[in-house]
Structure formats: C-alpha cells, structure tokens
Amino acid sequence: EKGGYDYFMLKEIAEQPKAVADTLLGRIGADGQLTLDEVRIPDSVLREIDKIVIIACGTSFHAGLIAKYAIEHWTRIPCEVEVASEFRYRDPILDQQTLVVAISQSGESMDTLMALRHAREQGAKVLAICNTNGSTIPRESDAVLYTHAGPEVAVASTKAFLTQLVACYLVALYLGQVRGTKWGDEITEVIRQLADMPQQVERVLDTMEPVRELARSLADARSVLFLGRHVGYPVALEGALKLKELAYMHAEGFAAGELKHGPIALIEEGLPVVVVVPSPRGRSVLHDKIVSNIQEIRARGARTIVVAEEGDEAVVPFADHLVRIPRTPVLLQPLVATVPLQVFACELATAKGHEVDQPRNLAKSVTVE
Ligand code: F6R
C-alpha cells in the first residue's frame, strides 16, 4: 500500500503534483474564471465581508499564514491568522461580516473545532478547508472547500499542506473575482499559472537528489535555522516544524528581517541556515534585502543553504548549497519552495534512523484540546 516507497511520507511527497492537480480540478472554468460552487455562501454575502480570520493548527496554520498574503493582496480585505488554541480565549471581535476560515487536514482537530464553534456563536460565517469528507469541522461549518489530496497517512503533513495552499489561493482569487479589485488582470493571469503548478512541483521533485545528499551530511547538526521573507517566512516556519517533528532536532524559523533583532546571536561557525529567497522579479526590494541577510550570516560562519529561483544569480556567491526552484508568481512560490524542505527533513530523519511515518509523541489527528 506504500506503492513501492519505504515510507508513506515519501509516497505522499511524490503524490504532490497529482494532489495539487486534483484540488484544482473542475474549479477553473474554460473561460479562466473560478467556479467554487461548493462554497454555499452566496456571492452577495461574500461581497459584504469586511474581515477574514483564519484559524488552524500546526502545518495548517502555516498554510493560513501564507493565505493572509494572498487574501490581503487580491481582495484588500483585512485578514488575521491565529493558532486555533489561542483564538477563543482572547474574546476575538467577530460579527456577521466576518468570514472565518478554518483549515484542517483531518477535520477533527479539537482546537480548531472549538475555535470555529466560538466563531459561529458570535455570528461569523465559517468556511472550512478540509481534506476529510464528512469530518466534524466541515459538518459544523457554513461551507466547505475540500482539498483533494487523498488520504494522508504519514503523521507529518506534506501533500495536504500543498493542497491547503491551493484551496487558500482559490478562496483569495475567488473573493477577488466576486468583489472586483484593481488586480483583475493579475487574478486572471495567476489563475492561469495556478493550473501550471502541478508540473512545477513535479520539476522540483525531479531535482531532489542533491538535497537528500545534503540532508544526510547534516544528520549530526545540533540545530538548523530557517529564514524567509514575505510568503517565504511561513515556508521557513514549516521547514523548521518538519525538522523538529521528524528529526527531533532543534530548528527554528524566522522572518529574515528579524535576525538583527536577536536571532543573529545564534549564528556560529558551521551552523546550517536554510534561506528561502523571494523572486528577484516582482517585489525585488525583498530579494535584495534577503541577499544582504545571507551575506550577514555567512560572514558570521553560517553554512548557507539557499533556496532560490532559477535564474537568480545574485545569491550564487553566498550560497554554500544552492537549491533551485522554478519561477512562479511571487505569491505562489510556497508551492514549490516547501517541497525541498519536506524532502530535507524526511531524509535527515531517515539518516538518523527515525521512523518518519510515526514520529514519537505525535498523533495524526489531535482530538484533545
Ligand atoms: C505537522 C502536522 C500537524 C498538523 C496539525 C493540524 O506535520 O501534521 O502540525 O498540521 O495537527 O492538523 P489538522 O490539519 O488535521 O487540523
């Protein structure tokens, strides 16, 4: 049932192009417009939404952090993202014009369920993004957009995460489409490029051997840091989470701009630091800033592992290891940038002899608060 792979996690990483394609299937019309018929919240209600709040846990929370960038950019609706376990205890401000998006692979995370119940009690509309048909979270929501990753068996989430990102992009683009924004042309173009992402993910998977080799060489590292900016920041958090849960190693993700506010003190000779580099096209200011960050940490002895777009030559002199990812629209980059980090964590954990499908102390669905 592992389809020839040693672990479910490897199988699920490999299934990502298909999972992404399946999640897009039937949702992009022949005219290039999105049709999200299953989202049973009428367009008239969606036009009135004045705030979006995303609640989720763990990896699903990281998908939510990325969604915030897409939603605010394409819809201009303010969006907050919060770990579900914190949400209801701070008496959040919610009303009928708030759209709460609950993201959950299993549909059974108790923290997320309790948060969504609280949101509905306050009159907010709840849209679930979920991978498990008929599970509790979609049943208790006003609407659901299913991710079509197929069953995810490995405890560490991989393909479900990529499909959560796709679902979040679809929601953001759909809201942009329904409400009309100045980004109309960009939205049309991104929808077209979204359809191309399964091939891009496949291309990343085809070039992972050097990443595996690097991961094996780092099996004795004490700690690994991950840096990113913009949507690369949540990708860094996700890379660190994967390494913690699978390799039982200290790993931490930071916004690269925060380095100088403290974490740079952690940099010492030989410390591996993974840097997710934003595209040099588009918001290129960010690109230049991260190149400076890479120089700063390297000057202090860090061993830099740089994940950068094809054709980005500016990073080459400062990269001890360079991982190339395909060019994508800026906001879609997490779909390709996350994959090498998953492979890295999986391989490093395997090199340490860990059981990657069943990491210690963890359960696939967390049904206690
Ligand atoms: C990490 C992981 C967990 C889950 C979290 C939420 O690899 O799998 O962090 O993402 O427990 O689970 P769901 O999405 O089922 O609510």
Overview features:
binds fructose -6-phosphate; five-stranded parallel beta sheet; Glutamine--fructose-6-phosphate aminotransferase [isomerizing]; 369 residues; alpha/beta; globular; 14 helices
Brief sketch in words of this structure:
The chain is α/β, with parallel strands linked by helices and 369 residues long. The chain has helices at residues 8-14, 16-24, 43-48, 58-75, 84-87, 110-121, 136-139, 159-179, 184-194, 197-205, 209-217, 232-247, 284-299, 334-351; strands at 51-56, 79-83, 98-104, 125-130, 143-146, 223-228, 250-255, 272-276, 303-309, 321-325.
Characterize the structure shown:
The structure is a single chain. The protein is an alpha/beta fold and 369 residues long. The protein is built from 14 helices and 10 strands. The protein has helices spanning 8-14, 16-24, 43-48, 58-75, 84-87, 110-121, 136-139, 159-179, 184-194, 197-205, 209-217, 232-247, 284-299, 334-351; strands at 51-56, 79-83, 98-104, 125-130, 143-146, 223-228, 250-255, 272-276, 303-309, 321-325. The strands form 2 sheets. Strands 2-1-3-4-5 form a 5-stranded parallel β-sheet, sandwiched between helices. A 5-stranded parallel β-sheet has the order 7-6-8-9-10, sandwiched between helices. Strand 8, helix 13 (284-299) and strand 9 (303-309) form a beta-alpha-beta unit. Helix 2 (16-24) runs parallel beside helix 8 (159-179), helix 11 (209-217) packs across helix 14 (334-351) and helix 12 (232-247) packs parallel to helix 14. The protein is globular. The two termini are 32 Å apart. The structure holds fructose -6-phosphate.
